[in-house]
What does this fold into?
Amino acid sequence: MLSTLARRPRRGAKGPVLACLLLGPWLALTPPGAQAFPDKPMRIIIPYTPGGPVDLTVRLIQPQLEAAFGKPLVVEYKSGAGGAIGVQSAAAAKPDGYTLVVAATNNIVIDPFLKKGQTFDPLRELQPLIKVAEIPAVLFTNRQQDAKNWEALRAGAARTERVLNFGSPGVGTTPHLSSILLAKATGLPITHIAYRGAQPAVQALLADEVQLFMGAAGLLAGQVQSGQVVPLAVSARERLAVMPDVPTVREAGIPDVLANNWLLLAAPKGLPRDVAERIEQVFGQVLRSQESRSRYAAQGMVPSGRTGAALLADLRAEAGKWRTLIRSEGLEEGQ
It folds into this structure.
């Protein structure tokens, strides 16, 4: 069939010309940059170690994103300094849409106020594109504590006056600040220990180097099933479907000081508008899909999809909240 068609005499290029005439009005409605974007693999920087919640959030939807963009997404890990190294690396990249970063709450609205002398302003040097997911925090302990709930852990620590080490993915993260606020609210001797990412902190919990850890439900699902760790409470208004037997912080009698985490997709400042809209559109469609919602729910995460002026207003409001809290509680590093 193909060889027969190949031998037919050509009568000009009417077909391609006609196609262009018919599609012309529609092509005109699509910005030139968006028509071509992406024309090569895209890079997503994860500013934490592999296997943590940020990595998991991207991996869960990576196949759908690659199918929608029609190009591979290359995940690059740049951990350190509570995620600051990777985030600042992304901000310094060319603003062409081929370098993106998935940042956590602390990277965007906490670090500028927590770290003395910091000149990097995420909201000025990054371009927020879309909030990817909300991650309700679950407070965990290990089986070595022989405590099935928060009250048993609290009472045991108060009776023996032993120090409870609280592991976090890094300085300035929401678990770090939550550990400080929890110690203040309960009067318990809680010591914060920072690790370079969530997975090292989880390993420390299993080894009893730390007795408390806070993170996404799905991060320790296997260890919960095996009995190695005990989920004490979830920082949410309602119990999680993936952990229906775990009480909320209010039900458990824990002060409401555990801060939830969220993840934001951002690009270097100066991204062309049509490219930004294309990225937001693809991520938004993927996050709205039932497949993504189901995958996230199984990990105790909630897809967001918030963009534009509403997103920027949210970020500025939350930055103001954290600035006030950090200053009022004297949490700024060096104080």
Observations:
- The chain has two domains: 41-134+261-328, 138-252.
- Residues 138-252 form a domain with the D-Maltodextrin-Binding Protein; domain 2 fold (CATH 3.40.190.10).
- The two ends are 79 Å apart (CA to CA).
